[in-house]
Write a structure and sequence with these properties.
8-stranded parallel barrel; Immunoglobulin-like; 20% strand; alpha/beta; TIM Barrel; 28 helices; 7-stranded antiparallel beta sheet; 789 residues; globular
């Protein structure tokens, strides 16, 4: 039977939805309260044999579209549709369902639709309206729960209830059930992971299999390889954003419609394959999972990962979702109406948080996303949540919205709970003096919960631990961490600091004691054993490590969707070649294959081109035609193709794709240092065994550097546990070796006496050292413990 004969408009249900919306808007105390009541009814939900749909559509009011020209468009594949295929042409049947309008909202209900599950592809849908010239316009669903072909394509009706019912960690949540919503608190430490570069497969399913394998090995007490230890010893995993991101700016689209009529249409489908670091979002579709990360095309893969983490042997691992609601890429203007936005910013578009409907929809999207089963939420760029105060003519931070984010109650497996919250907030960034004037406590001091966290001053961007004097220059910030850092995320390796590190001019005062080459220097700076001791033993807060840094893999600003500014972005990233790629790495046949095919057969040839490109971007003020002309006129001629605007854009795409593959952690596993991996795991377990190290320093605790400086920076830390245990650490962070010294004779108040035993030594200190005089060199550290008297 044709699709139109198998689906039925359920008018009674649709009218009930519209009446409920009207009642909410009339009776609510405020417009926002009314929109907050409506928001759970928006999007698509599957209830028994009826699918219910709701849309916020102010653009239809703007265009004065009659109700009889607004429909729900249903698309059902006639031919087999395989979400794992790279390219396919599929014909879809089409049906049009009436809607009931209530001011700026449209509702409908349909019987006979197919809802997607792990094993079945559902029907696709969008709202559609017809103008006076019989031209059709689509309104996509920003609250969609399945987007197999990205945010610019129709959504798939998905059976979220079935997905939740099949989750494998029901017992984990049921054990937390109680009268009041359970409140998750902070873990001991965090591993930050970028899914596409975390495993060779680059998907959530691949990462899930990796953790399942680790769980099996741990459960059986099997010997651990360095690559196993890389992922172990963490209480929580924080994924870089898994929301759908931007699409190719100049195409091709993943959903391209060809010939068709009102009842049938041919669609060319491409499996989404963009590369992105996760933060280039368009707001629409954030309730679900980026299809690029889904091996099967099913959002169930995120629940699968969460379940494996929650069921991990010996102790569950928490899952932290990184959400981006502080801005939208300009592509958001394609996916959403202009009513969502409050004007441009340096990232793309500001969001209109003061619009009651927008405010309510954003919070509802967050609720649905976290209901995948996350234990915690990290909010990106909280300083960017602002609104324009017209009376005072100033932008103000929307702290009330941030509080609303952390007030949301989630529900999974019948258990209501509130996640733990982390805010990245560097206000007054981007003011020029932000590094000096930011307290990194603006959200902590305003939120109601006492366990709200922020990224600390050594975790924010622009940290360069591979430059001389970095540690001493940051000593004032370290003193702040010691006294008020209990609610800070600590550590220097994360997606932003490593990316910023690769953009630093190599002519600056680089700490050459960290390694023989720039690659070694950068790798050790962000995976420094002495810094690990400082972070895990000396500092309060919750330590976080970035997987790529811990694996000594590469990383950068990875985004291949740009057309207009792609060449400029690569010019800004060009210096990373000096930091992250040597001649040997470039020569490996599987590395940089696209650039080699373009004519850059050696690193030297590519390096010469990348000396020219940034300079020409600057002097021509990014005139691509002129850049191409000057490149072709170079003497001796540059390697690569005959340069044109198209060739430059091809180069930019090739660079991003090659760097994405080069940055995959799987490339670094074979070269992991066994001693370093074992030491890092020991340090993490040391912290996990002493959760009190998260607390601020008490009256008997001491932190300082060894005086006089004498050409080196050596930090000492003495901490006291609630049971009377003392922990004393000495960390050489940079500079010349010390003279022969006995750490336990340093002038640190409280360390005198007997009973100290060596608990940790960095790998470069031989296992035969058990105490006494020692010459400490850059990146060496020692940790002693003494039980209560």
């Amino acid at each position: 039977m044709p699709l139109k004969d198998t689906v039925t408009f359920v008018e009674e249900t649709a009218r009930a939805e519209a009446l409920a919306a009207r009642d909410a808007l009339i009776t609510a105390e405020t417009s926002f309260d009314g929109e907050r009541a409506i928001a759970p009814r928006l999007g698509a939900r599957h209830e028994g044999d009826v699918a219910v749909f709701g849309f916020w559509t102010p653009e239809i009011l703007d265009a004065r579209v009659p109700s009889s020209d607004v429909f729900l468009e249903i698309l059902r594949p006639i031919e087999p549709l395989d979400l794992t295929r790279a390219h396919q042409n599929v014909r879809f049947e089409r049906a049009w369902i009436p809607v009931i309008r209530e001011e700026a909202h449209c509702f409908t209900a349909v019987k006979g639709l197919k809802a997607g599950t792990r094993d079945q592809i559902g029907d696709f849908y969008a709202l559609a309206w017809r103008d006076a010239e019989d031209k059709w316009h689509r309104i996509l669903d920003p609250l969609a729960m399945s987007l197999p072909f990205g945010v610019m394509a129709p959504a798939e009706l998905y059976d979220v209830g079935a997905m939740q019912a099949a989750r494998g960690d029901t017992a984990y949540f049921e054990a937390l059930a109680g009268g009041e919503p359970h409140k998750f608190g902070p873990p001991t430490n965090i591993l930050q992971i970028h899914v596409p570069t975390a495993t060779a497969g680059g998907t959530l399913a691949s990462l899930t299999r990796h953790y399942a394998r680790l769980a099996e090995r741990v459960a059986r007490d099997l010997p651990l390889e360095p690559s196993d230890k890389l992922f172990l010893g963490y209480d929580a995993v924080q994924l870089l954003p898994v929301e759908p991101t931007t699409v190719y700016e100049a195409g091709p689209d993943f959903w391209q419609e060809g010939d068709g009529d009102s009842e049938e249409v041919s669609v060319e489908l491409l499996r989404p394959d963009t590369t992105n670091w996760g933060y280039d979002i368009v707001i629409s579709g954030m309730a679900t999972v980026n299809p690029v990360l889904l091996e099967s095309g099913r959002p169930d893969e995120l629940i699968d990962l969460i379940s494996v983490l929650h069921n991990f042997p010996s102790k569950p691992k928490k899952l932290i979702l990184d959400v981006v609601f502080g801005h939208s890429d300009n592509q958001g203007l394609r996916a959403l109406s202009g009513h969502y936005f409050a004007g441009p910013n340096m990232y793309g578009q500001n969001l209109d948080y003061q619009n009651p409907a927008v405010r309510a929809i954003l919070l509802e999207i967050q609720r649905r996303k976290v209901d995948f089963g996350a234990d915690a939420v990290r909010v990106d760029g909280a300083q960017d949540f602002k609104w324009w105060d017209a009376s005072a003519q100033v932008l103000r931070h929307d702290d009330d919205y941030l509080q609303s984010m952390s007030d949301i109650v989630q529900e999974v497996a019948g258990t209501r709970y509130r996640p733990w919250f982390i805010f990245e907030d560097g206000r007054p960034w981007p003011e020029p003096d932000w590094e000096l004037s930011s307290t990194y406590r603006s959200v902590i001091e305003q939120q109601r919960d006492d366990d709200v966290f922020q990224w600390g001053p050594l975790t924010f961007a622009h940290n360069t631990p591979f430059l001389y004097t970095f540690w001493l220059s940051k000593f004032w910030r370290i003193q702040e961490m010691v006294s008020v850092g209990a609610n800070w995320i600590s550590g220097t390796s994360n997606h932003d600091t490593l990316r910023r590190g690769t953009q630093v001019d190599t002519r600056l005062n680089v700490n050459t004691r960290l390694g023989r080459t720039r690659m070694e220097i950068l790798d050790k700076a962000y995976d420094n054993p002495a810094v690990h001791v400082l972070t895990y033993v000396g500092m309060p807060g919750v330590p976080m490590d970035f997987l790529n840094a811990m694996a000594r893999a590469s990383w950068g600003f990875i985004r291949n969707q740009d057309d207009r500014y792609g060449v400029k972005v690569v010019a800004e990233e060009a210096i990373s070649l000096k930091w992250q790629v040597d001649e040997y790495s470039y020569s490996i046949p599987g590395n940089f294959r696209r650039l080699k095919e373009m004519g850059f057969t050696t690193r030297e040839e590519l390096a010469r081109f990348l000396e020219f490109l940034p300079a020409l971007v600057d002097v021509t003020e990014y005139d691509l035609e002129e850049i191409a002309r000057l490149l072709n006129a170079s003497e001796p001629p540059l390697a690569g193709p005959e340069y044109s605007v198209a060739a430059l854009k091809e180069f930019a795409r090739a660079w991003m794709n090659d760097m994405h593959e080069y940055s995959n952690v799987s490339n670094s596993l074979a070269s992991l240092d066994h001693d370093q991996a074992s030491f890092c795991l020991d340090v993490r377990n040391f912290r996990r065994a002493r959760p009190w190290l998260r607390d601020n320093y008490g009256p008997k605790d001491r932190f300082d550097y060894v005086h006089p400086i004498a050409g080196r920076t050596v930090f000492t830390s003495l901490r006291h546990g609630p049971d009377g245990e003392q922990v004393f650490s000495v960390c050489h962070l940079e500079g010349k070796p010390t003279d022969d010294l006995d750490p336990l004779t340093l002038p640190v108040e409280g360390i005198k006496g007997m009973g100290w035993r060596l608990a940790l030594r960095t790998p470069s200190i031989g296992s035969d050292y058990m105490g006494g005089p020692i010459v400490l060199k850059d990146s060496m550290a020692l940790v002693y413990v003494r039980d209560a008297a």
